[in-house]
Amino acid sequence: MKKINLGIFFGGKSAEHEISLISAKNIIDIIDKNKYNIFPIGINKNNEFSFYGGDHYILDSHDAKKVHLSKSGKPITFSLRNNREFIGVLDKKLKIKLDVAFPVLHGSFGEDGTIQGIFEVAGLPYVGADVLGSVIGMNKDIAKKILEGSGIKMAKFLVFDAANKDKINFSDIASKLKCPFFIKPTNSGSSVGVYKIKSKNDFDKRIKNIFKLSSKIMCEEAVVGKEIECSVLGNEKPIASLPGEVISHHEFYSYEAKYLDENGAQLIIPADLSNGLIKKIQETSINVFKLLRCKGMARVDGFVNKNNDYIFNEINTIPGFTSISMYPKLWEASGLDPAKLIDRLIQLALE
Ligand SMILES: Nc1ncnc2c1ncn2[C@@H]1O[C@H](COP(=O)(O)OP(=O)(O)O)[C@@H](O)[C@H]1O
Ligand SMILES: [Mg+2]
Question: Going by CA atoms, what residue is nearest to atom 19 of ligand 1?
Fold first, then answer.
């Protein structure tokens, strides 16, 4: 059988550059090299693409604080004339013709439909959600509005635009959502800009900065309960893994708890829930995946509240893929090992 030329894209200009590098390294390490020719393509923080020939493309990959792209890559750009081709910027003889792309990128320019647009223009099949699903998944406001009326439970929310910044009133929000409530940018990730607001002082302090991250913000009722994540896989007939639980050792699952504090959070895989709840979470996650027009993969995140109701929170169309990440770990717990999972994702892209 002919080997498949697989481009793995990592890094990029987003707050999640580092975690992307660690995820990509993990995928490259475990993928079946008898089946795939790997073309590692690193993207630096200026969004410049480079091809890496040797092994040493990601350095200090065991340390989330130090991990970085090596400078040994050859600058490339994608060619509009030739389908599926990337060409050298300086070395015109460098031509990379891919069969399929795996964007192991998170956040802006990676998970938001923009690089998916490049792949579409290049005629290149790619892993994960297409442009539409990526745009929807990245945008908490649009995603929740699509799900309104579907019967899927969500925390009450209000959305504000930077243009009407002066009219935002703390006591108004507190009377509608109760205090404490959460504020977050509508289109970010990794808990960047997410705050639990407990007082007017808190609110005034955060509101100024949060609009620097996003032109729209969401205020959301705080859900008290367990934080639950579920992995979904497939195109037309997606399937769901067993759910997992995140127990944060910080006030909530903040950026620090996720990446900086080694003991910031504990993952319970699978989550200790009744069979009825597990089924409900799996069905809802598949439903969310379909309604939000996802393909390939997504991790659907939510809560189980005090009344044992499942409350949807957000969807991640390119979830973390490190050796300890929830997405692959949940599949492993559900009987699909990481190498087979990656293989399945690529097959779904080629379909
Ligand atoms: N409505 C909420 N109720 C309780 N906790 C919340 C709520 N919204 C966010 N959080 C906490 O903040 C974290 C990050 O928020 P989330 O909406 O998942 O944004 P991100 O896309 O940055 O991960 C969540 O994992 C959770 O711990
Ligand atoms: Mg989240």
Answer: 191
**Separation of 223 CA from ligand 1 center, angstroms?**
9
From-to residues of CATH 3.30.470.20 in the chain: 137-153+224-350
Q: If you write DSSP's letter for every residue of 7-40 in order, what string do you get? A: EEEEE-SSTTHHHHHHHHHHHHHHS-TTTEEEEE
**137-153+224-350 placed in CATH 3.30.470.20:** yes
Expressed in angstroms and rounded, the spacing between residue 342 Cα and the centre of ligand 1 is: 27
Q: Which of 206, 313, 314, 315 to mutate to test the pocket of ligand 1 (most atoms within 8 A of CB)?
A: 313
Question: Cα–Cα distances in Å, from 125 out to 53, 110, 120, 152, 163?
Answer: 22, 15, 7, 32, 39
Model confidence at 189: pLDDT above 90: no
CA 91 – ligand 2 centroid, Å: 41
**Tens-digit pLDDT profile for residues 210-241:** 998 889 999 999 999 999 999 999 999 999 99
C-alpha dihedral sign at 158, 148, 240, 244: positive
pTM of the model: 0.96
> Is the peptide bond between 180 and the residue preceding it cis, with omega within 30 degrees of 0?
yes
Which ligand number lies closest to the CA of residue 185? 1
Provide the CATH number for the domain formed by 157-221 in this structure. 3.30.1490.20
Q: Does 4-126 carry CATH code 3.40.50.970? A: no
Residues lining ligand 1, CB < 6 A?
A: 155, 182, 184, 188-191, 194, 220-223, 227, 248, 252-253, 301, 313-314
Mean pLDDT of the chain: 95
